[in-house]
């Protein structure tokens, strides 16, 4: 086993498992760790994650492990794939294990609960100073990645060496293309805001508003995403790439998206709690809506779609009334 090509993936849900598949299928040693040690031991014994990706057998180079400290010590790359609300706790837990050779990447999509802070800032606050950081984001559904279907993703880091080396581990010319950039702010915001807009797209479809309304939400949602991003110093081009426009279109238009299905349930009359329960997994966009609301208010940025979704999810406004509020806004130009 080569330390320089070994990755520990923290988070054994569907997305963490799928990313572990991508790395190990490229013949790189990969550890997969999850909180439930009994479930992880069963994965290793049966060579399958029955709860999330039961149709796919683990590649030979993938090991499910219960000893996180040991796995991290044997790895160069630490890939965090947990819900964004668990990101800070995860980083705090692994910080004492991080040594000079480690490089930390995350595929969590969201902002810090309560503050709306970028996860990059959370990582910098808790990890050893100078730890190379990167964020992995883009239009990717776990089951399609696990199946080896053609996929493209964005890896963003201010550290060119990390971008190059970890990007090379993930890249597979036959099925998995990695695009690299250095705009971590734009990529992180894309992953958070698109979840909010996807709830809106599902909600509109649940109300029976049709394809015209869905397309308008996607288009104007991208405007809101970019408006917030530019205020925080992101690069304009990022918003037309995989991590922003690409992920936005995917999440708003395909029912593999939990956020879209959550919105559909709301539009069809379910309560917020019942809609979340009906999904059966974490609905990142629910928390992201609050986080984006906090950040937009801090920055003084107008985000009408996100604002109305916040009113539906957190203030009890009806989905129909929120839609009517958006339609009734003063006419403007693009």
Largest sheet: 8 strands, mixed
Order of SSEs: EHEHEHEEHEHEHEHEHEHHHHHHHH
Amount of helix: 40-55%
At CATH level 2, the architecture of the largest domain is 3-Layer(aba) Sandwich
Distance linking N and C termini: 55 Å
Morphology: globular
CATH topology of the largest domain: Rossmann fold
Q: Which CATH top level class of the largest domain fits?
A: Alpha Beta
What Rg, in angstroms, do the CA atoms define? 19 Å
Number of domains: 2
Low-confidence sequence ranges: none
Concise summary:
With 334 residues, the chain is α/β, with parallel strands linked by helices. It has 16 helices and ten strands.
Care to describe what's here?
With 334 residues, this protein is an alpha/beta fold. The chain folds into two domains: 3-182, Rossmann fold; 190-327, N-(1-d-carboxylethyl)-l-norvaline Dehydrogenase, domain 2, CATH 1.10.1040.10. Helix content is 52%, strand content 13%. It has helices spanning 14-25, 37-46, 50-53, 68-73, 87-94, 119-126, 142-146, 160-170, 184-206, 210-231, 242-253, 258-267, 272-279, 284-299, 304-314, 319-327; strands at 7-10, 30-33, 48-49, 54-57, 62-65, 77-80, 103-106, 133-137, 151-156, 176-181. Helix 8 links the parallel strand 9 (151-156) and strand 10. Helix 5 packs parallel to helix 6 (119-126), helix 9 runs parallel beside helix 12 (258-267) and helix 9 crosses helix 14. The radius of gyration is 19 Å and the shape is globular. It starts with 6 loop residues before the first strand and ends in a 7-residue tail after the last helix.
């Amino acid at each position: 086993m080569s330390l320089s090509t070994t990755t520990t993936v923290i988070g054994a849900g569907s997305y963490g498992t799928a990313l572990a598949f991508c790395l190990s299928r490229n013949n790189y040693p990969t550890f997969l760790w999850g909180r439930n040690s009994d479930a992880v031991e069963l994965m290793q014994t049966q060579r399958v994650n029955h709860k999330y990706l039961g149709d796919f057998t683990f590649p030979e180079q993938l090991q499910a492990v219960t000893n996180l400290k040991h796995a991290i010590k044997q790895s160069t790359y630490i890939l965090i794939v947990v819900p964004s609300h668990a990101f800070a706790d995860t980083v705090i837990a692994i910080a004492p294990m991080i040594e000079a050779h480690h490089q930390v990447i995350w595929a969590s999509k969201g902002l810090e609960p309560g503050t709306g802070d970028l996860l990059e800032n959370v990582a910098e606050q808790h990890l050893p100073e100078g730890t190379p950081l990167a964020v992995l984001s883009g239009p990717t559904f776990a089951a399609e990645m696990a199946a080896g279907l053609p996929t493209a993703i964005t890896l963003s880091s201010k550290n060119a060496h990390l971008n190059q080396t970890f990007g090379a581990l993930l890249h597979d010319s036959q099925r998995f293309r990695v695009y690299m950039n250095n705009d971590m702010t734009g990529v992180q915001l894309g992953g958070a805001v698109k979840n909010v807009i996807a709830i809106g797209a599902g909600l509109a479809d649940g109300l029976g508003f049709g394809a015209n309304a869905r397309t308008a939400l996607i288009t104007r949602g991208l405007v809101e995403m970019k408006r917030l991003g530019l205020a925080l110093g992101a690069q304009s081009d990022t918003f037309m790439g995989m991590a922003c426009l690409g992920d936005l279109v995917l999440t708003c238009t395909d029912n593999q998206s939990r956020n879209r299905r959550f919105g559909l349930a709301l539009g069809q009359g379910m309560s917020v709690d019942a809609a979340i329960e009906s999904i059966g997994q974490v609905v990142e966009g629910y928390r992201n809506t609050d986080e984006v609301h906090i950040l937009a208010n801090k920055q003084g940025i107008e985000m009408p779609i996100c604002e109305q979704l916040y009113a539906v999810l957190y203030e009890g406004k009806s989905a129909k009334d929120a839609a009517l509020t958006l339609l009734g806004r003063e006419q403007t130009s693009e």
